[in-house]
Amino acid sequence: MDKILVLDFGSQTTALIGRRIRELGVYSEVIPGDTPLTDDLLSSGVFSGARGLILSGSPESVYTKEGAAPDPKVYACGLPLLGICYGLQRMTWDNGGLVEPLPKREYGGVGVSISGTATPDHWAPFLKGFKKEHFTAWMSHGDTLTRLAPGFTQIGVSDTGYPAVVIHESKPWFGLQFHPEVTHCEGGMDILSAFTFGVCCCEKSWTMERYAEELKASLAEKAGKNPALLLISGGVDSTVAGALLLKALEPGQVHLMYMDTGLMRKDETKTVRAALERLGAQQLHIVYCEAEFLSALKGLEDPEAKRRAIGDLFITIQEREVARLGLPEQYFLVQGTLYTDLIESGKGVGKKAHVIKSHHNVGSPLVDAKRKAGRIIEPLDKLYKDEVRALGRILGVEDEVVRRHPFPGPGLAVRILGEVTKEKCGILREADAVFIDELKKRRGPSGERLYDEIWQAFAALLPIRSVGVAGDVRKYGWVLALRAITSADGMTADVYPFAAKDLLEISTLITNTVPDIGRVVYDISSKPPATIEWE
Fold first, then answer.
1. Rounded to whole angstroms, what are the CA distances from 520 to 438, 464, 466?
2. CA distance 432 to 520
3. What is the pTM of this model?
4. Does residue 202 have an active-site annotation?
5. Between 1.20.120.740, 2.30.42.10, 3.30.2270.10, 3.40.50.620, what CATH number should domain 208-402 receive?
6. Measuring CA to CA, how many Å separate 47 from each of 50, 90, 221, 349?
7. Cα gap 429→123, rounded to integer Å
8. Which of 140, 139, 145, 56 is nearest to 99 (CA)?
């Protein structure tokens, strides 16, 4: 099967490149950017079927010691190369060019112009990806090419006057100083398609159905006859992971453990039980542990401290409950971890990603120890949320569950800014339920439910009280922030443009229904610069 390999240098969107290639129908795999390219590896293993290499972005600079470099054999392996952002700078630096800091960072939408000069024949397949002579690209870099490496020609320039598209005159090496993988980049998929099919001559042979079969086979092989325990939250990710286990293994092998932490959505335990039983779960263990989680969170206000406390307690309770269940020592712990969880926690395929925020199933020292011991299976760790939804449909997960909005592993603890208490959880749970119920009742411009037009929506309780009036009585209530975004994969997000009527009516309904809420605000921050969750 033809494939495109992506070298990971730590960018938040590295795996998104691979996902875009898979969208084109070609298998793509991400490997550490500094992987030693032995002769054996180049002739077999992960390189088997490879038709091209993409050098990804990075948070580092090529001229610093932190800037990882590929094995020099990358430039001698004969495969076409596409450098994206840092990848282009890496190709330039490694081959005799110069990269220096910009006086002002290029970030966000920036215009790019393509020159109309005569070109060598081998450029033509790649240049077919540029449908316009001028388009808006998506940039995120603080360095630029100040001297091209010998043999390279600039054929695209940004509106700010810096190199944006570079091609080697005789070798199939191409470079972009922007991110075509991001949905905000105009014509990005056309450019990736031109490289994948025009330059690398790949054939379409990858589908989610095929991937599902491969996942089931690999799960069955790794787990063997050993029990597999999945910590399940009831969200899309863990539910799809559970469905995958139930399809790949004998149902009696699969233990699904759900913890009622007191940090869940309204009626979550009842909803989770019903959904898993419909999937054929036989070993469903529900653990009621609200008091333990609230005790662990007492006095904590820092978001990372809350995430660490929750992550450690999840594993502590899991180990205690496993002992109670009498599972053998060789059981496997399965998690519904996505690539976005890993990369935001600084644990991409390579070792160069920066920590954006810790995820409870990634950053906990106890989880790290289990991962190092080889006792963790994360079957969704190469996928993004919408790919998980597609996989869930193939596995027979009901549509209402598949379409469910993302919910953070730490639950309401990271939607309550500041210290978490039982009282605040109850207030937020009720307010959030009103918000979500209204989104499911109301229709958007497309005629679909607002809930389905929005990628993720939730309420956050702010550590602020404000003065108001209820009837003729002074009211001192909490401030609630509503958040609703549109996104394709969670890596970037835009604010959902509610009609004013909907926001006004929903706000009024919340303050009338939940007496402790005195004021409602709407979060209009995109990602970046904000993250989707507040903490």
1. 15, 11, 10
2. 12
3. 0.71
4. no
5. 3.40.50.620
6. 5, 21, 22, 16
7. 57
8. 145
Residue 104 contacts residue 129 (beta carbons within 8 Å) = no
Q: Does the pLDDT of residue 144 top 90, yes or no? A: yes
Instruction: Answer whether residue 246 shows pLDDT above 60.
Output: yes
276, 259 contact by CB (below 8 A): no
In this model, does residue 353 exceed pLDDT 60?
Answer: no
Query: What stretches of 115-204 adopt beta strand conformation (E)?
Result: 134-147, 152-158, 163-168, 173-176
Instruction: Give the whole-number percent of the chain exceeding pLDDT 90.
Output: 67
Strand pairing category for 494-495 and 473-486: antiparallel
Q: Which residues pair with 232 in a beta bridge?
A: 258
Q: How many alpha carbons fall within 13 Å on the CB side of residue 524?
A: 5
User: What value does the mean pLDDT of the chain take?
Assistant: 89
**CATH top-level class of 415-522:** alpha beta
- Which tokens is 71 given? 């094995």
| b/e burial code for range 402-435 (CB count within 10 A of at least 16 → b) | bebbbbbbbbbbbbbbbebeeebbebbbbbbbbb
Token output for 223: 């787990």
pLDDT tens-digit map of 166-202: 999 999 999 999 999 998 899 999 999 999 999 999 9
User: Sign of the C-alpha dihedral, residues 91, 93, 95, 97?
Assistant: positive
Q: State the DSSP code for 46.
A: G
Active-site residue, from 60, 106, 168, 179: 179
Count the neighbouring beta carbons within 10 Å of the beta carbon of residue 10: 25
Residue 341 has pLDDT above 80, yes or no: no
CB-count burial class (<10 Å; 0-12, 13-18, 19+) for 28: buried
Show me where the domains of the chain are located: 3-199, 208-402, 415-522
The three-state secondary structure class of 424 is: helix
Residue tagged active-site, from 29, 60, 106, 181: 181
Letter for the amino acid at 505?
E
The Cα–Cα gap between 526 and 183 comes to 14
Map residue 31 onto helix, strand or coil. strand
Tell me if residue 90 falls in helix, strand or coil: helix
Q: Locate 471 and state its tokens.
A: 């009837």
> Where is average pLDDT lowest: 7-11, 236-240, 342-346?
342-346
Backbone CA torsion sign across 144, 146, 150, 155 = positive
Q: What is the residue type of 211? A: Y
Do 208-402 and 3-199 have the same topology in CATH? yes
- Neighbour-count burial of 116, counting CB atoms closer than 10 A to its CB (0-12 exposed, 13-18 middle, 19+ buried): exposed
The yes or no reply on domain 3-199 and CATH 3.30.470.20 is: no
179 a catalytic residue? yes
Instruction: Tell how strand 283-288 and strand 332-334 pair up.
Output: unpaired
Is residue 292 part of the annotated active site? The answer reads: no
Pairing relationship of beta strands 98-114 and 152-158 according to DSSP bridges = antiparallel
